[in-house]
Amino acid sequence: MPGQLLELHVENFRSLRDVTIPLGPLTVLVGANGVGKSNVLKVFDLLADIIRTDLEPALETRGGFDEVAFWGGPKPPSTLRVRLKGTWTIHSSANAPDEYDLKVRRYSAPSNRDHGRYRLTRSESFQFKRTKGRGRRITVSGARATVVDTRPSTKLEDSSEFGIQRLSSGLSTLPRLASAEGGTEVAMMADRLSSFRVFDVDVDAARLPSRLDHRYYGDLSSSADNLAAFLNFLNEDSALWGRLLDDARSVLPQLEDIQFAAVGGRAAQVAVQLVERGLRRPTPLADASYGTVRLLGLLALLYDPAPPALTCIEEIDHGLHPQALNLIVDRLREASALTQFIVATHSPALTDRLEPEEIVICERDDEGASLIPAITTDEVRAIVEESGDLPLGELWFSGVIGGDLTGDEL
Predict the structure, then answer these.
(1) Which terminus of the chain is more exposed, N or C, with fewer CB under 10 A?
(2) Is the residue at 69 inside a domain?
(3) Could you please report the per-residue DSSP string of 282-342?
(4) Residues 46 and 185 both lie in one domain
(5) Distances in Å between the alpha carbon of 372 and those of 80, 227, 344, 347, 402?
(6) How far apart are alpha carbons 303 and 35 in whole angstroms?
(7) What pTM was estimated for this model as a whole?
């Protein structure tokens, strides 16, 4: 897969007081409701929003710093931090990864003109290799950005500075740097981060006809509200469509075919119809079951021929029959050759189908802080071996590798 996230570190974001999560092609967050799985996914939604709109608007959309910062403990935190390690740029590797580090600090307003509100500062750093043996670090603090080239053999550094707006994120502004100053590498990182998608099927919206807007024709929305148009797009590739249709039939035995019908009006729209065994007429997707719509939304996602760099999926098992889970896990592994997945679940049946290196056990302590991972992959492997290779879902649900079903998500 062309580049991927290797590690996520978060401090004081919602229930994530201090977590470091290793990430692979497929990472499944396993835990009860309220332990913080969704908050991990929301970190990526925040980063993508920072690139699209900048730092301050992204925080204000979520209610401001105090709303997104950790709520537990005796006093509110004054800093929020997100650090990523990945292999996005040309010369990066697992042993010499790219790094991005964002710190946001809250402090009290110094004068009455701020009407009692707090003020924010931010610092950022980008680190990546440019050529063999040579590294580059870009730091952003206040209204200054500093570019530093390091030559390891001599430990000499070349640096330059330039101005930047005080609260403007380097992710949204530094891609405009000249290539010689690192603009190309920062643009690569920002492009990857901005494409991150948190996917959660809005079943009511996905049931409806959708416009054939060719500007977005081949892009499945994060809520699948353009599911009909996207399935129609996939139908143009007969081999891909045949595989998707076979998968749908294997889980929905009454399904014979999926057809498309034009919907009249000022804007061209298309609707999905299901041809089902024994029925005289097709069933509009608007009348299909909740589970059927969610299944088709997930299959559309997993057969996307041009996915974003990272796809996060909320409660992937929700509304699905257990017999569909084997298929979904298989397709996730296949699709992870094109896009990295972070998936949240609390289903023992789905967890049964996973390997130890694919799961991250999530719990929460008495102060409201998420423990992610609650135990290491090596510990999971050791427990599986000691248990006589019992399924992971059974071990999790019984509490052997977690399974604490208490807590409310912040």
Answers:
(1) N
(2) yes
(3) PEEGGGS-HHHHHHHHHHHHHT-SS--SEEEESSTTTT--GGGHHHHHHHHHHHTTTSEEE
(4) yes
(5) 17, 33, 12, 17, 11
(6) 30
(7) 0.87
| pLDDT, tens digit, 9 for 90 and up, residues 341-400 | 999 998 899 999 999 999 999 999 988 999 999 999 999 999 999 988 888 999 998 888
Picking from 286, 350, 287, the residue whose alpha carbon sits closest to that of residue 316 is 350
pLDDT, position 408? 39
**Shortest CA distance to 145 belongs to which of 173, 129, 164, 130?**
164
198 touches 271 (CB < 8 A): no
One domain for residues 136 and 123 = yes
User: 396: how many CB neighbours lie within 10 A of its CB?
Assistant: 26
Residue 80: closest CA among 98, 116, 52, 106: 106
Least confident stretch, 39-48, 135-144, 287-296, 389-398 = 135-144
> Within this chain, do residues 94 and 183 fall inside the same structural domain, yes or no?
yes
pLDDT value at position 115? 45
